[in-house]
Amino acid sequence: MKQTNTLITGADKGIGFETAKELGQRGQHILLGARNAQRGQAAIEKLRAAGVAADLILLDVTDQTTIDQAAQTIQDRWGYLTVLINNAGVALDHHEAPEKMPMAVIRADFDVNFFGAVAVAQTMIPLLRQGQPAKIINVSSNMGSLGLASDPKSRFYRANSLGYQSSKAALNMATISLSKALAPEITVNAVNPGYTATEFGGSWAGEQTVAEGAAKIVDLARDEAPRVTGQFVETAGQLPW
Ligand SMILES: NC(=O)c1ccc[n+]([C@@H]2O[C@H](COP(=O)([O-])OP(=O)(O)OC[C@H]3O[C@@H](n4cnc5c(N)ncnc54)[C@H](OP(=O)(O)O)[C@@H]3O)[C@@H](O)[C@H]2O)c1
């Protein structure tokens, strides 16, 4: 069996770090993506102390040069990727009304949550083909579900964060699009971690622990997971797109 090489973007803290720790403890080799070298190195040390085989990959998902350098490093050192987890994300809306939300904020949400994830996926596909059967897991959000946002019976009917929600809805469409293009060698799925207690979005304090937030991502990424593609899932089951 080839070693599973798992790249997780934005893994120096929060749900990404927890996912790295849990998959590493299941025997996967973790390529920990971080845009900041110091925070990334601190996370690597914590992982190694927890018995995880991990290497730092400096990667800002909004900077194609760093994405290309990351791919080159992975190519030179390991030659393939088995799992890509597009976890890096931002929520910059801060309760601004949609009719007033500055375009710069909406673009900044999209730069990380949509363009960043797609750029990393496109750049890593040749490495994932080398590691097939391989997986891309996009960390999305129930806030990006068009079905829930337009359903008066859903609690997400009242949520109205134009930049964040649109960027995650766009990421969901990228999931559908790539899943069709890459099947069956590479599966592509979107996961909602749920409202989780991280530093995400500044003042937000979620209801779940990071272990609960990471659970479905770990479930899909583990080596023994059934191969499904083109799905939008959470711990409780399937979500409407
Ligand atoms: N927490 C929730 O309630 C919740 C709910 C639904 C979905 N999600 C999704 O879960 C994912 C992880 O969120 P989290 O709660 O763990 O948030 P978090 O603790 O704020 O972590 C976000 C991670 O993304 C990284 N990041 C941000 N911009 C980046 C960039 N340009 N390039 C590379 N990395 C970048 C951050 O790096 P720095 O340390 O350098 O800032 C950090 O490592 C996100 O995609 C988020 O949308 C979270």
From TrEMBL:
Keyword Nucleotide-binding annotated: no
Entry keyword set: NADP, Oxidoreductase
Gene3D superfamilies: NAD(P)-binding Rossmann-like Domain
Top-level taxon of origin: Bacteria
InterPro entries linked: NAD(P)-bd_dom_sf, SDR_fam
GO molecular function annotations of the record: oxidoreductase activity
Listed Pfam families: adh_short
Transcription listed as a keyword: no
Leader peptide range in chain numbering: none
GO CC annotation, single: membrane
Family indicated by similarity: Belongs to the short-chain dehydrogenases/reductases (SDR) family.
Name of the molecule in the record: Carbonyl reductase
Species annotation: Schleiferilactobacillus harbinensis DSM 16991
Lineage: Bacteria, Bacillati, Bacillota, Bacilli, Lactobacillales
